[in-house]
From TrEMBL:
Organismal lineage: Archaea, Methanobacteriati, Methanobacteriota, Archaeoglobi, Archaeoglobales
PANTHER family: CYTOCHROME YDHU-RELATED (PTHR30485:SF1), NI/FE-HYDROGENASE 1 B-TYPE CYTOCHROME SUBUNIT (PTHR30485)
GO molecular function, one term: electron transfer activity
Sequence intervals crossing the membrane: 21-40, 52-72, 129-150, 185-205
Name this polypeptide is given: Quinone-reactive Ni/Fe-hydrogenase B-type cytochrome subunit (HydC)
Lipid bilayer topology: Multi-pass membrane protein
GO biological process: respiratory electron transport chain
Main location class: membrane
Organism: Archaeoglobus fulgidus
Domain called Cytochrome b561 bacterial/Ni-hydrogenase: residue spans: 13-211
Keywords, alphabetical: Cell membrane, Membrane, Transmembrane, Transmembrane helix
Tagged with keyword Transmembrane: yes
């Protein structure tokens, strides 16, 4: 129902499928990270009796959920996160950084047209960068993890790792792959924390729980974002 006074309308932003995948990724990602850190003895803690078996199982569940989430993103949200929007996203991030230093914020481009029953802009532009960063890190951590688990099937990965390892002073391809796997995990955790912070600041965290969010209403005359999603 539209709120005339406040100029907003309640919209189902995230379906049950998306919310289920999202929180499944969060939970399995945390368990996978903790079990991996226990295996690596990075912080000297012990949470699980069989961290290795749990790490492997959760990794495959995590990958399955990510596959489902990617399918939805490509099928339903492509116009908002497609690579051609990355320059727009970078410009937005730079403008937001400058505004933050000055003690303000850039205008929120998200808006909904209730007459057409569609978004004019659904996401904060910086989410485009976040999405593709997740894709890149997931690919790296997945390939390195599978290479360590099934080395007999990943000869080319070990060959590339051996050559790249020489740049860092090691000819041990397995050690390089393991180190890259760990580094990617820390980068992943960093992006997740930043993502959670941004979701809180921009008011999207609650919608990932309930599915709904009050979106700014625009008329046909005010239609359009700073960068059209389909342009």
């Amino acid at each position: 129902m539209e709120c005339k006074k406040c100029g907003s309308v309640a919209v189902e932003r995230h379906s049950k499928f998306v919310r289920s995948c999202h929180w499944g990724i969060v939970v399995t990602g945390i368990i996978t990270a903790l079990s991996g850190m226990q295996l690596s003895k990075l912080f000297g803690f012990t949470l699980f009796d069989d961290a290795y078996a749990l790490h492997i199982r959760m990794s495959f569940v995590f990958a399955g959920l990510w596959t489902l989430f990617m399918y939805f993103s490509i099928a339903e949200e492509w116009k908002w996160i497609k690579p051609s929007r990355i320059p727009y996203s970078i410009k937005f991030v730079l403008e937001e950084a400058v505004a933050w230093i000055k003690g303000g914020h850039v205008g929120d481009p998200r808006a909904y047209d209730p007459r057409r029953r569609e978004y004019v802009e659904k996401i904060i532009p910086s989410q485009v960068l976040v999405f593709w960063t997740y894709v890149l890190l997931t690919a790296i951590i997945g390939i390195t993890g599978l290479a360590m688990l099934y080395p007999e099937y990943f000869g080319p990965v070990y060959s590339a790792a051996e050559k790249m390892g020489l740049l860092f002073g090691t000819d041990n391809s397995y050690a390089f792959i393991r180190g890259l796997h760990r580094l990617t995990m820390f980068l992943y955790a960093t992006v997740m924390i930043m993502h959670a912070y941004a979701a809180t600041i921009f008011g999207t965290l609650s919608s990932m729980i309930s599915g709904y969010r009050r979106e700014k209403v625009v008329s046909d005359s005010g239609r359009g974002s700073r960068e059209p999603a389909d342009g």
